[in-house]
Design a protein that fits this description.
20 helices
Length: about 525
């Protein structure tokens, strides 16, 4: 039986030559300028709090009064970062004779990330919901039964920062996240700007976990770690929605990936003599630590719990792959999961109320969710056929179908992983993608739940190409304001057009330094089946 973490010997590519190093320098600077422009544009185009502290500042305040100009600057930054990422991908392609090294990738990532740390929140206003819901918990109320308007009052500064549609809804986030949020609110009080800064620090902790785990997991699954970092941590969706957008997916996914890596540290890469009990080799402790860390990720956002199923498959196959091993491992992981989750829930003082609010996001009816879009289409067709307006009923039915399809596909992927029809880490990414895509609501940052596990285990060029196209498309599609453009939709085409002109001029300047020749080796390495 083949080992689940049988680390392949990936033939390392050689260092970049002089011309390619020059190309890398230009790519780094191009992306860094884009990050700086995004930071500047965020002053007027970001999801600023209701009481914008920049409004009265000399020079900086003028961006808040020129929304279209700020949007143009922000979109220019977005396009430049995405183009720099695509160009960097040419120097990070598996199978190249020479490619970017890990230290070079790390320095590039640091250069692009640093300016983004100082941006106004963009692409979403969720961070203001984090602050309000954490304050509800800090006041001794139950954030799983009351929303910001009821818990804090409609005139509270924290409530006013929450989008109107979320002011009456309870929190959908796990007890660990709200406990950390309570600590942040205790430190910052009702100071919105400081609260945002501390939540960004928390998101950066999660981002650091992702950066730490990706190359280590990639080596375990025979994927080039540079390629995994490029598709994972340097992905514009990660930079825009985890670093700039401050989504708590950063912490949840970071804990999930770190938990998987810690658990696999106890699993030998070779198996002399066949299966043997984990306690004979000290594996059991690592499995428990890894499962506990994954559970902490689930205590931030529940999708992380799915990683326990695929970790269980790897452990069960390690023991022999029979159903008795599956049941035994499932029981052990269930004990760890329930124990850690109970300690977290009861220790936070919030209890298990979060279980009943996991579907809060379904209040959003977005065309980005395939099942919701199907409901819209079916309801619209009914109107055209003269059957009346039944859009809400059609959406409800299609979402119910999606609620069944997602878990069924995840179960099928678990079974396929157990039978070694695909690697369990690939199964995890695909299962997370299935559950979220068939869910009631889909946001661009939800894709990262699938993309990051797949980045460390799926080395197929077709997957890489598809993931690159999807990431780039979603990265430029969502406006940075985190709000709609009702009554001012004209701003978007002007901003897009202006940004395209500026970026086209920038590309003309650096055209001679854009990597074009892939210079691949005869055989591509690091492709996991």
């Amino acid at each position: 039986m083949r080992d689940e973490v049988d680390e392949r010997v990936v033939d390392p590519a050689g260092p970049l030559d002089t011309r390619e190093r020059r190309q890398l320098d230009v790519i780094r600077r191009f992306g860094t300028i884009g990050a700086l422009l995004l930071a500047v544009g965020s002053l007027g185009a970001g999801a600023a709090p209701v009481f914008n502290p920049v409004w009265r500042l000399p020079v900086l305040g003028m961006f808040s009064r020129m929304t279209t100009v700020s949007l143009t600057i922000a979109f220019t930054g977005v396009f430049m970062i995405v183009l720099a990422w695509l160009a960097l991908g040419r120097l990070s392609l598996p199978g190249r004779a020479r490619m970017v090294s890990l230290p070079q990738m790390g320095r590039t990532l640091a250069m692009w990330t640093t300016p983004l740390v100082f941006t106004v929140p963009m692409f979403s206003k969720d961070v203001y919901s984090y602050l309000a819901q954490s304050e509800i918990a800090a006041r001794g109320l139950d954030p799983y039964t009351v929303g910001p308007a009821e818990g804090l009052g409609i005139d509270d500064d924290l409530t006013r920062g929450v989008p109107t549609m979320w002011r009456e809804t309870p929190s959908p986030y796990g007890p660990l996240f709200l406990t950390v949020g309570k600590a942040i609110n205790w430190i910052t009080g009702n100071h919105v700007v400081m609260g945002v800064a501390f939540h960004r620090l928390l998101a950066l902790v999660g981002f650091a976990m992702i950066v730490w785990a990706l190359p280590r997991l990639a080596r375990r699954f025979g994927i080039n770690p540079v390629s995994a970092l490029w598709l994972g941590a340097a992905n514009p969706l990660v930079l825009f929605h985890l670093v700039v957008g401050i989504h708590n997916e950063s912490l949840a996914i970071g804990l999930m990936l770190v938990g998987v890596e810690l658990a696999l540290r106890g699993m030998p890469r070779t198996r002399p003599g066949g299966p043997f009990p984990p306690w004979q080799s000290g594996e059991l402790l690592w499995y428990g630590i890894g499962a506990a860390v994954i559970t902490l990720g689930a205590a931030v956002k529940i999708p992380a719990a799915l990683a326990l199923g695929f970790l269980g498959v790897m452990i069960a196959r390690r023991l022999g792959g029979r159903w008795k091993h599956v049941l035994g491992v499932a029981g052990g992981l269930a004990v760890v999961f329930l124990s850690v989750l109970t300690i977290t829930s009861l220790g936070s003082g919030l209890g298990y109320g979060w279980v009943s609010t996991l579907n809060t996001a379904s209040a959003v009816k977005s065309w980005m969710a395939p099942m919701t879009a199907l409901g819209f289409g079916a309801g619209g067709l009914g109107i055209l056929l003269g059957l009346g307006n039944h859009i809400d009923a059609a959406i409800t039915v299609s979402r119910m179908v999606g609620t069944l399809l997602g878990p069924l596909l995840a179960a099928k992927l678990l079974l396929d992983s157990l039978r070694w029809r695909l690697r369990p880490m690939i199964g995890l990414g695909a299962a997370l993608g299935a559950v979220l895509v068939f869910g009631a609501t889909v946001q661009p940052w939800y894709l990262l739940w699938a993309a990051l596990p797949l980045a460390v285990a799926a080395g197929d060029i077709r997957f890489r190409t598809m993931a690159t196209a999807i990431s780039a498309g979603f990265a430029v599609a969502l406006p940075p304001t985190g709000s709609t453009f009702d009554g001012r939709a004209y701003q978007l085409p002007y901003a897009y057009a202006g940004a395209v002109i500026v970026v086209a001029l920038a590309l003309f300047v650096v055209r001679r330094h854009i990597p074009t020749n892939l210079r691949r080796r005869p055989e591509t390495v690091g492709v996991a089946g």
